[in-house]
Amino acid sequence: MLFVAAFVRPVVLALASATGESIPIAAALPQDAPLRAEWNDAAGALDAWLASPTWSTIERSSAYAERMKRKDMRDLRGGIAIVAGLLKAPAQQAFAQALGREVAAAALPRDGTDEPAVILATRAASPALAETLAQAIETLAAFTPGDAAAQEDDDGDGVRSTNGREFHAVVGDAVLVANDRALLVESIARLRGAQSGAPRAPGLHMHANVVALRTAGLWKPAPTSYDNAVGALLAYGIGNALEHAEALDLELAHGQRSLRLRVVATPFSVDDAAAWFFPSRAQSVPIALPQDTIANLALTRDYPRFYSMRNELLDADLKGSIVEFDSIMGILFGGRSFGDEVLPAFGDNATLIVGPQDYADLGTPPGVQYPGFTLVLQRSEDGKDLLKARDLLTAFQTTLGVVNADRGQKGLESMLQNSERVDGIDVVSARFLLDEDETGAPDVRFNAEPALAVTPTHVFVSSARSHLLALLAAQRTATSAQPVAEPHSQVRVEFPALVSLLGANEEALVANRMVEHAEDAETARAAIQLFLDLLRGLDALDVAIDPAQEGVSLTAELRTLGAL
Amino acid sequence: MTTRRTFLKSCAAAVPALAWSRFAIAGSGGGAPRCLVVVRLGGGNDGLNTVAPIEDDVYRRLRPSLALTKAESLPLSRHGLALHPRLKGLAEHYDAGRLAVVTNVGYPRPDRSHFRSMDIWHTASLEPERARIGVHGATLATLGRETSASGIPGVALLDTEMPLGLVHPDVPVPLLASLEQVRLDEAKLVPLLELDRDTPAASPLARAVGAAHAATRLARRLEHVDLAATANAFPATALGKRLATLFTLLRSGLDLRIAYVAHDGFDTHTRQKDNHAALLLELGDALAAFQTALVKDGLDRDVVTLTFSEFGRRVEENGSKGTDHGAAAPLFVLGSAVTGGVFGEAPNLTDLEDGDVRYETDFRQVYATLLERWFGVDSRPVLGGSFAPLPFLPAIV
Amino acid sequence: MLGDATSRNALAPRADDALDEHAAAHLLRRAGFGQPRVDVERACERGLEATVSTLTTLDPPCAAVRELDAVLDTVAAGESDAVAAWWVARMLRSEQPLREKLALFWHGHFATSDAKVQDARLMATQLRTFLDLGAGPFHALLHAMTRDAAMLLWLDGELNRKDHPNENYAREVFELFTLGIGNYDEQDIREAARALTGFRRAGGRTEFVRAMHDDGTKTVLGHRGALAADDVVTLCAKHPATARRLATRLLQMFAHPSPPNAVIDAACAVYADAGLDPLALLRVVLRSEWFHSPAVVRARIASPVEFVVGHLRSIGARADASACVRTMRDMGQWLLRPPTVKGWDGEDAWLNAATFVARADCARRIALGDDAGLVRGTPKLAAEVPGDVPTIVEVIAMRVLGAPLPRAVGEAVVATVAAIGGDSKAAALGAILALPEASVV
Fold it and tell me: Which whole-number Å values give the CA distances from B83 to A483, A515, B324, in the listed order?
């Protein structure tokens, strides 16, 4: 077959012109396919990646060498070598030639079978390379089971097949492969009839026709209840919006120092049950963050409505825990209803901020350092009547009393309460006491110094007093007081600050790795260093959900410090 | 010489050479061993709104926002007592004569600390310094580890900490959070593990083979349980799921003698009405489904279920529409072998002890009843004293 | 009373110094964990006496263990499970596993649980004491335990004050840690509790506060005076019942769950003569004819720690020690969290339908290697196993069990390997480690 094919030269069409314009390879795909994807300039992305400092850090590491010795990686590399051999080029070049320019693929349902019809089209570097690629496909296909009698050569329509299960064609510098003959024939025709156009934007683009996928039973319905409240707060509305979406578009693109992913579901519509997830968003003054903030997460939700629907939104087996939670909240807030009288005292925006702690008061920092976590809630105008600062401060005291009573009954040390005024703001906190004759690093408990502060506009609840004080200071010195639209859902991770915290815990990370990876100290330290080095190359990660009239989108952007 | 003999005796006790025999009797058929299911209502269940004295004026006066009305609640046969309306599932078993309601259960000088009082219920001892041995663990130790061919005489269907009630140094029992813990990851091992060995019965290898057989027997039987159907027969609540798991284990022939399940969250200091109702609904529906399933599969005569809470709640409601820690309270014993009805008087709300219901029945009498009349053993060594059994189970003759 | 000569005869040395593969494996399994190939070969080369001498001579630890030792404080800043994992890592890597096995023995003996202590650093300190003093005379260990901060919290030593004695620790010292029931009376406990007053925790240490100590006159075990903690320790440690009780427990751990009386008599004499030094006793036991007799070989049920660590060492695998701790917990042995002060019952109590399933599941995870999250990298065994399935089964059985499988079982394993499919080495290893034979040590 291979031998024969080499002599049957396909008609060469000049698909690429000298002007830089070309016929987009995606033109070959059926436009009504429920799933379509194109990947342009993959070679550029691969080149950039292989030239990046991140990759060279990985490649030089012993962990990478170790990993490459594993059987699955050996198999993978063997496979790549075979394909590269068939394409008569080194692996990277072979990839660039075969898939590196424009690749497009589509899948659509086929009658009478569960297996969808799939077509993949790629633009090779030249018509000659397209033919080499086709031959490589034929060689590889010969190893797969099939009906040798169904072998087929190009008899004018361009369709070739080794076994009657795969069908491929070479059209100029394009190679098309499909598992359905009719689909391939149509695609060849589409490609031949297409107009040339400007070069496509680099990156990966995917489009899914959700309606068609749903009809084909390929769309898994979103859960209607969650097994934990955080999961529901993060995802419920997204799941519901996807249930209503007709189309889903994904874009993945890299820039000089960034990698960006954007997913859009259109149109934007949700059930009433999910309305709490997308409250109308007010303008507010953003919370000022201290310089060394590690991460923050902001969620704007209608929390009282979420709470009132808790029994429907959460799994039935959480009913007991929900009741328990409600009772405890009742105790802490002096008998107020958590759903009706506590939650409505706050605005729709809640922000969790993660930052380093200052252990100056302890002398020696603990052997393992945790960051401080501070939850910042807005106080709504009505809320100030519902819940006065005093109510919140005493709720903290009640909580501490309950915790101490419980610890006392178990024979554990209690925490000592502290109350202070910082620039006119009441701050209550609690801490463990160091033993007078304590030597060495304090234990992990000393990461906890829970604290609460109430300002006229916000409530700060923190796992660490020092982090809370840093946040209060940042609010005081904040320069901008311009209200902006509240984000719907936003996450930011600052890698330099994260690396700094992890660096402070390096000894613990190394020790842990020695135990969990059965490594000697040197190897473990090298692995941790590699991990930290990789993180050192990163700048920040931003993730945001944005509901807009035309569609709800999720955007994630990873920025690096050096070239990506 | 005495010293040495005593010492050897204690060595012999430490090395139970005859314990292997439990495997020898495994799967030999005959009557299933009796099982006690203990359901903890952690937090202090409000007894007065579980079994309510609906005709008592004092009750209505002291609980202006919480008192149940006669119209809504489910009347019991006597004393003007009625079940909470959400215990409808249990009321049906009461009507069928399978539910005993024991009223005013407690102990002298009630302790109102969750922790202490739970320890008291778990150890059946009022002495705080008693060794940490649980009453159910001691019951299992009395029955002997060989009482269960599977080697699992007791189990706590929890995923957190072993409750003190089941702790006994001689009878370790597992925490069993899901069926996965008794199901082999590699099912194809079953035939291999079923092989017999030609080895003396008392040898360690024979005992290991016995354990392998116990595991495969359970695996084989689990294959025949329709898990989906079982799940459908139980409510999807946490307690419902745990009792469905327990039912599946019993169905599969796991010869448990004591199983411990928890249904916590009863510390209703504030806004009690809805929360308590939700907890009781979960309790009543899950227990009713469990009992119904047992009846359907003919296992009901071998299983009784006991509910308990560390204390009841204060008679007078507090300022937050809730109730504070109290003392004596009613408890339930459910099962086809149980003599149904109300055991004890209605709580006397005009003669309170520091604002709480006085105990009339010592909780150790309930344990004594189960030990003597359910397991057929002398209750005195376990309870460290003599407590009169109650008539909710017939005496063994 | 038996004559000294007679009693010692019960532990008379084995006449034949030569070790075959089976005997060497038995010796290694008992004196340590598992039967690593290279150790078996070396033992066969060097013979019984030389091997026992090496096994019971605890030199400073090897480099891998020294490295681990250096990070204990860091590990202990976390949870007690991390300390347990550190210990398991040490067991897996130690070239002198007897030190770890003795520490495991003392952890079961002075069974202290972090469930109550709730401080990983204190658990680590106690463990360190078992590792440092566990292979030496008992008196020093008991002395250290009486001042151990974790023990102080565990048995309410802090609540034991001059005017409010708490008898918890005193009771367990008599009943469990030293003499055993029948050798003392309630009066001894009450008086000893008074003598033990005055200790208080100060950070990670214990301090003695004279003002809290009852310095009145007490009578303990027939001795009268202003007794203090050290006097109780000495009285208990030198009491003949203590030697007997501990010698018996050591025999149960290292040799046989119910040793014959003559052997106990002999062991007790050796142990008492050596000032309650466990190494001195083990040197005699491990060399004895009795220890190598068929009645003692495979007479014990492997504890979960012995099962996991032993098999991993036998196949020469590196492992995630934290995952090991969790799988041991599923089998009923949660290190640093024993169920009661009595420790783990052991033997029969290890096995029931659920714990057996946990063992078989663990066997499967070990066999699946890297992908199952327990083993790291490729075990040495994998490179050493040749050929067709029956040969694979035969070789693996010898390596991990130290004995060939009965024919019917071997054939059934071959059939199981075929049924499971995939990598036959992995399937064979998983099947063999799941056999009841693999739970007997």
Answer: 56, 56, 21
**What pLDDT score was predicted for residue B6?**
41
CB C351 within 8 A of CB B151: yes
Residues C238, C382 share a domain: no
- Assess if residue C390 is contained within a domain: yes
DSSP string, B48-96: GGTEEETT-HHHHHH-TTTPPPTTTSEE-SSTTEEE-GGGHHHHHHHHT
Q: What is the pLDDT of residue B128?
A: 67
* Interface list for A 276-315 with B (CB within 8 A): 315
**pLDDT tens, residue by residue, C414-427:** 999 999 998 899 99
Q: What's the one-letter identity of residue A135?
A: Q
Measured distance between the N- and C-terminal CA atoms of chain C, rounded to whole angstroms? 34
Q: How far off is chain B from A315, nearest CA to CA, in Å?
A: 8
Domain boundary among C298, C333, C348: C298
Pairwise CB contact (< 8 Å): B212 & C241: no
Tell me, what DSSP letter sits at residue B373? I
CB-CB neighbors (< 8 A) of C436 in chain B = 193, 197, 205, 208-209, 211-212
Q: How confident is the model over A364-404, as pLDDT tens digits?
A: 898 889 999 999 999 988 778 888 999 999 999 999 998 99
Q: How far is CA A59 from CA A530, B83, C119, in A?
A: 10, 71, 41
**Are C243 and C220 within one domain?**
yes
CB count within 10 Å of CB C57 equals 11
Q: Domain B31-383 classified CATH 3.40.720?
A: yes
Report the domain count for chain C.
2
Q: How far apart are CA A346 and CA A376, in angstroms?
A: 10
Report residue A346 CA to chain centroid gap.
29
Based on the fold, state whether residues C265 and C394 are members of the same structural domain: no
> Which parts of C47-175 fold into alpha helices (H)?
48-55, 63-70, 72-75, 80-93, 97-109, 114-117, 120-133, 138-146, 149-154, 168-172
Helix (H, G, I), strand (E, B) or coil at A178: strand
**Among residues B172, B140, B174, which one has the least CA distance to residue B375?**
B140
As a whole number of angstroms, the distance between CA A128 and CA A374 comes to 62
- Domain termination residue (choose one: C280, C298, C316): C298
Burial of residue A548 (CB within 10 Å: 0-12, 13-18, 19+) is: exposed
Return d(Cα B107, Cα B124) in angstroms, integer. Answer: 10
Are residues A304 and A339 in contact, defined by beta-carbon separation less than 8 angstroms?
Answer: yes
Name the burial class of residue B299, with classes exposed (0-12), middle (13-18) and buried (19+) by CB atoms within 10 angstroms of its CB.
middle
Of all residues in chain C, the one with the smallest CA distance to A367 is C77
Q: What's residue A62's pLDDT?
A: 80
In this complex, do A521 and C203 lie within 8 Å of one another by their Cβ atoms?
no
Nearest to B288 by CA among B91, B42, B26: B91
C64 located within any domain = no
Full residue range of the structural domain in which residue C104 is found: 1-58+96-298
**pLDDT digit string (tens) for C229-251?**
999 999 999 999 999 999 999 99
Size of interface A-B (CB pairs under 8 A): 71
Which residues are CB-neighbours of C235 under 8 A, at least 6 positions away? C220, C221, C223
Cis peptide before A267 (omega within 30 of 0): yes
In a domain, C70, yes or no: no
pLDDT > 90: percent of chain C:
82
